[in-house]
Design goal:
Helix content is about 10%, strand content about 50%. It is mainly β. It has a 16-stranded antiparallel β-barrel with strand order 1-2-3-6-7-8-9-10-11-12-13-15-16-17-18-19. Strands 4-5 form a two-stranded antiparallel ribbon.
């Protein structure tokens, strides 16, 4: 407890030095190209997307008036299409290792409109602190890895229109999952029900970035739909491995802006994944479904989010289980570039006495002038039969 207390004091002092910092650009390349301030597309001092940010994303990382690259144009500036990013973290736990400094990642963001209706986006991790996959799909500890995250080509039927169709091909996941807590978000961590797998050997998560293609539609009345066919689930935990299952998973998302502040959406996923052999159980295939409902509310100073995910998984030898979970989240702009946030997570994997997990997360996110943002986050995790976990994290996310 004394170690955690000292860590809280140290990070609080650090936050005090930056409390007066002013606005910066979340992905500087996009700010350089559009000339917009980061708060046009991101909520306060966080990375959560505003309505304008969501339109920019779905339209193909372009503003409505962006005509793309004209033939013979010699004024193209590569810095308008590319940014570098790094996340430096300090973590304190109530169990060993008690404290740790880490460069969690160093990555490249590049994207934007090409000619006509085409655009692209790539996020590539040159360095990431994490795990690698074994030959059977499990995980083994490793110091670092490189990883391709998003990488896709997109075609838009009417980039300057209010209503348009689009098609994406490459390494993708649903835009609706990105904007509802996986990508642009208030906190360092993602909601457990989006970021965590289902257990039982099934590595699928709703935020899996998978190889495949999707087609979508958006109109000026606030409707957005996207349907996709991708390689089988678990790609978040098994990054960039060749797929070992010939079945193609299907997803569908539908969103509607009910008012200028309130959005409601639905999510559905149908998949299969090979479960590696374990002990006396041979390799077998889990056919599973996942569905979700989510909602977002946002004003100039207040952001609220909620989501529920449920579904069904097979059990080896017959029968099925029904995992589910939800989260509630709130963010408030204390100052234009200083945002406080809090989230409650609850998940149940239906795998026995230790299936239930609850998380409480809260903190502040301060945007830094021409750099990125500094986030201070405290979280607790409760799992029946396991030690109570407390964690303090400070993350400096700098960009160029």
């Amino acid at each position: 407890m004394r170690r955690t207390h000292k860590a809280i004091v140290a990070v609080a002092i650090l936050c005090g030095f930056v409390a007066a910092a002013s606005s910066a650009l979340a992905v500087p390349a996009f700010g350089r190209k559009t000339g917009l301030d980061c708060t046009s597309c991101h909520f306060g001092g966080s990375n959560r997307l505003t309505r304008m940010g969501l339109d920019f994303l779905v339209r193909g990382h372009r503003m409505k008036d962006d005509q793309g690259i004209a033939k013979g144009d010699k004024s193209l500036n590569v810095l308008d299409y590319m940014s570098f990013s790094s996340k430096v973290r300090y973590t304190a736990n109530n169990s060993s290792p008690y404290t740790a400094f880490d460069v969690e990642s160093f990555s490249i963001y590049t994207g934007g409109p090409l000619s006509g209706g085409f655009s692209y986006f790539v996020e590539y991790y040159l360095h990431e602190r994490g795990k690698a996959a074994s030959s059977t799909g499990g995980q083994v500890d490793t110091a670092t890895r490189s990883k391709l995250a998003d990488a896709y080509l997109q075609w838009n039927s009417a980039p300057q229109g209010d209503a348009y169709y689009y098609v994406r091909a490459g390494q993708i996941y649903p835009y609706a999952v990105y904007v509802n807590g996986s990508g642009g978000r208030l906190s360092i961590s993602r909601p457990t029900v989006i970021d965590g797998d289902l257990g039982g050997g099934n590595l699928y998560t709703p935020r899996d970035r998978a190889y495949g293609l999707s087609a979508g539609y958006a109109n000026g009345n606030g409707y957005r739909m996207e349907a996709g066919i991708v390689n089988s689930g678990g790609t978040n935990k098994r990054a960039n491995l060749a797929e070992q299952n010939t079945f193609k998973d299907l997803f569908l998302t539908v969103e509607k802006d009910l008012t200028s502040e309130l959005t409601f959406g639905l999510y559905g996923y149908n998949g299969r994944i090979n479960i590696p052999a374990a002990g006396s159980i041979p390799q077998w295939e889990d056919r599973f479904t996942r569905y979700g409902v989510f909602s977002r509310y946002e004003t100039e100073s207040l952001a609220l989010s909620a989501a529920y995910f449920g579904g069904q998984n097979q059990v080896y030898g017959g029968g099925h289980r029904n995992p589910d979970g939800y989260y509630l989240e709130a963010g408030y702009n204390v100052q234009p570039t200083l945002t406080g946030f809090a989230r409650y997570d609850h998940v149940y994997n239906d795998l026995g006495a230790s299936s239930r997990r609850t998380d409480v997360t809260f903190g502040v996110s301060q945007r830094l002038t021409d750099v990125g943002r500094l986030v201070l986050q405290f979280s607790t995790t409760t799992v029946p039969g396991s030690p109570y976990k407390r964690q303090l994290q400070a993350e400096l996310n700098w960009l160029f």
